[in-house]
Design brief:
It is a single chain. The protein has 2 domains: about 10-50 and about 185-215, no CATH class; about 50-180, Response regulator (Rossmann fold). It is about 35% helix and about 20% strand. It has 6 helices and 10 strands. It has helices at about 20-30, 50-65, 80-95, 115-125, 140-150, 185-200, and strands spanning about 10, 35, 45-50, 70-75, 105-110, 130-135, 160-165, 180, 210-215, 215-220. A 6-stranded mixed β-sheet has the order 5-4-6-7-8-10, with helices on both faces. A 4-stranded parallel β-sheet has the order 1-2-3-9, with helices on both faces. The longest helix has 16 residues, at about 80-95.
Length: about 230
Amino acid sequence: MLYTQVDGIIASMANETVDLTYYEKIKSKGIPLILFDRGENDLNVDYIGIDDYNSSQLIVKHLVEQDCKRIAHIGGFKRTRIFNNRIKGYIDALKKHNLPLNDELLLECNLTIDSGREKMLELLSLEKRPDAVYVAGDYAALGALQVLNEENISIPDEIALVGFGNEPFSAMVTPSISSIEQHSKDIGKEAAFAFLKHAKKEVVKQSLTKKILDVELVIRESSNRKNQ
């Protein structure tokens, strides 16, 4: 791609991305690079995303309002900045609400359905189970939900569940999954606007775009103990 005629690149890094050499090469060739979602880093390029730290704070606050006191987090790998920010937000929110932070309740995985199942089984094997689980991706949350249903655990009364991403299936499963809506269409629009600024030569080095969009917690059956 680097050697073809492109006017710019809009990209989201893979979860596994550690080596930034490819992106440095794009920059060195003067090709406008706009990163979104998994992309906030030290490359000094345009970035469009959400406030992952405060998203976690919002989720924990909601679960506390549902009288949850032992909140687990199935997160992505902390080497990826967005998941690290979600983990930090979760930890700080527990402290803010005077809830205990237990290493056994903080798990990392690749956030697939299968890994969500695996980590949920891990949490259920604990001597003292969580009464809520915040999962950093809806596919892993779906896997967790499957396990809870298979084990005949009452959701949300025994264990409340919140996902992240507001995938279409979240509203269709039983019980429906509470989730963070990150307004992906708006992220796409802002990324396109940032690209057009480059195309029109309206960008100078000191005025790169860094836009952090608000999120919304969509409360559904899986965490709604008080019928909010």
